[in-house]
Amino acid sequence: MSQLAGIRACVFDAYGTIFDFASAAARCAEIPEDKRAALTSLWRDKQLQYTWLRSLQGRYADFWQVTGEALDFTLDSLGIATPALRERLMDLYRTLSAFPEVADTLRRLKEAGFVTAILSNGSPKMLDAAVRGAGLQTLLDAVLSADAVQVFKTHPRVYDYALQQLGVRADQVSFQSSNAWDAYAASAYGMRVVWCNRYGQRPERLPGTPDHEVKSLAELPSLLGPPG
């Protein structure tokens, strides 16, 4: 397997890639056991749908609002909507658990000389809480939010923003996402891409082709040549 050469910055999606979005419901004892998996799945699906629909409509609202509206839809759909449960789940979403290999992977990349960054739809306050909650703040050189450009991924302006902030070209970025739609979009944009296929998804029928597919971010450092 050929290594990615000339990479200067390793940029990561946040939710599903670094942070486990399922950990909110998993830590919420108030959710009936038989509805926990459905809640996690529907909440995530609606959250993403709302980002795409708002981007198409030109009606931006930050990711915290979108996440809350997706949760409202989900709780209503499952017949378990209460103010207390909503508040509890939103609070848990602020400090989602990081996947087990994340801290060590980021540490290895920084020691090797790569710039490390997050590029996420998450709002700045959400990302700050998640990063601090997981103790990752010293392992990241930048935490970049789509809120700065008032549109969500996969709009090219979001990827443009990352390059501007990091001072690199697209081909000098290794972009990591567990979301296939994001991985393919970043590839079509011109970034080098490692698709962290945590969830056993099938390949998308979209523009772009990820350079590598892995099951864990722990595999990433061995895919990279020396920093460009």
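That was protein one. Protein two is written in the same sequence-then-structure order:
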Amino acid sequence: MKTIFLVIGKTTDKRIEQLTDEYIGRINHYMPFRLEVIPELRNAKSLSQEQQKEQEAELIKKYLQPGDYIILLDEHGKERRSIEFAQWMQKRMAASPRRLVFIVGGPYGFAPQIHKMAQEEISLSQMTFSHQMIRLLFVEQIYRAMTILNGEPYHHE
């Protein structure tokens, strides 16, 4: 099973990008994991929020494949503690989907059609973070989950 982290727009802060890449390297010791970046929309300022979400949805769909298990990172999704997230990851991996695809939407979230395609929605926090920070926080949590599942001394309760 492959795990894909699909995001819109590249990271402009090189420090965040370096840390994100470091955690992705660590994750790849446990499972195939890849960050895929969808280019930002051009002329987004001339579009309404709904138009932006619809155009982003069309771009997102191009990256999805039949058999993908789709999880949206959304502020209204289910929150889990790190240990619960690790257990959830273990169940998802045991179910053997072809690909586990986590998606971060654009600045206004997801179009309804993407919500309908998703099997689950998770939230990292009730707080709002920049899209660049979410990338780093999420890959750290994936790494943390893998260390928990492997009994390694990274996570402390």
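Residues 131-149 form the longest helix (19 residues). Keep this in mind for the problem set.
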